[in-house]
Amino acid sequence: MTQAKPISLDKQAIVKFFPFNTLSDTHLNEVFRKIHAFEYAENTVLFKRGEQQQQRFYLLSGKVNKIDKNYVIRPFSAQDKENVDTLDDQDPYQYTVIVIEKSIIFYVEQNYLDLVLTWSQESSFLENTLTWKQEGGYQVAVIDEVVGSNDDDDWMSVLLQSHLFEQIPPMHIQELFISFERIEVKEKDIILTEGAKGDYFYVISQGVAGVYRTKGEQFEHLADLSPGAFFGEDALIADTARNASVLMRSDGLLMRLSKEKFKHLLETPILHYISIDEAKLLIADKMQKTLLIDIRLPQEFKNKNLKGSINVPLLVLRKTLTSLNSDTYYLISPLGNKRCEVAAYIMKQAGFNASIVKV
Predict the structure, then answer these.
(1) Which of 20, 108, 136, 307 sits 20 to 30 Å CA-CA off 206?
(2) What are the tens digits of pLDDT across the range 27-50?
(3) Residue 167 sits in the same domain as residue 96
């Protein structure tokens, strides 16, 4: 990328653009720290058609030319009504973009933005799931897996009754329980900190833990977790920050599994991948009920999607589980990157047959 003059940027300058306009203040603050803004001179080539999309570029002021595969040139100004999204959301880029007058442009790394979107939507998952629990629940099996059992002596049985463990090879289950590390905890001990890096998967053996989220300058108590409940897996799967804090509300005993062990024993056996060609054959097979779903945000889906896919955003997937059919094979579009893995894990945990399509 051509050298340009770095400039300071106000956070409000980015909030009109997608997907920043979908983020909470917490997540917006996180992504703003990773924004790079520059003043580009005339005739600067931002990126070329066919290059891998490593950054998402946004035009704050000025004007560029977008040149497509047929060498058709489209002038694009910061004042255009369409200027609410990245200059090119395709991977690889479908345009060559050249600055044609002095312009202010900012960009963010694509992989990092995808992680923030995963974190943001997982936070919504947590809030919605616990809210539904408090309102009486929408699916008993899922609620049981979230809040656990009241029997302090039977955490292992509760864990094994979840749909998640039905799909794990017996040898893995044996190794799993051998690999668990016992941690004695005291009341008020902080187990997870919102925003911190994920490092362990936890199961409550004894005691009660509370789930908390920051709300402005306050901490909001969302729910309590009892023996048999497990938590902490979402950040490990998506490689994102923790989406909530967990604080012990009593003395207790936790079983924890390292990130490496979790991925080997729990994530790898659960997540299944198929090729795009295999997906096409399954969709064409009238004997197999198959549905291709795209778990990205609606605007991302509108901009680009695989033919025949339907949009079920990650942030509402849990609420949608009750409307899904147990005899349907769900294929998850690969366009969501890391979010696909979280979605597949959630669906498998709920007992559905789901695979991720790999391009």
Answers:
(1) 136
(2) 788 789 889 999 999 999 999 999
(3) no
Inside any domain, residue 328: yes
Residues 254 and 242 placed together within one structural domain of the fold: yes
Q: What confidence tens digit (pLDDT) does each residue in 44-88 have?
A: 999 999 998 889 999 999 999 999 999 999 999 999 999 999 999
Report the CATH number that the domain containing residue 333 is assigned in CATH.
Answer: 3.40.250.10
Q: Are residues 65 and 177 in the same domain?
A: no
Cα–Cα distance between 60 and 50 in angstroms, integer? 24
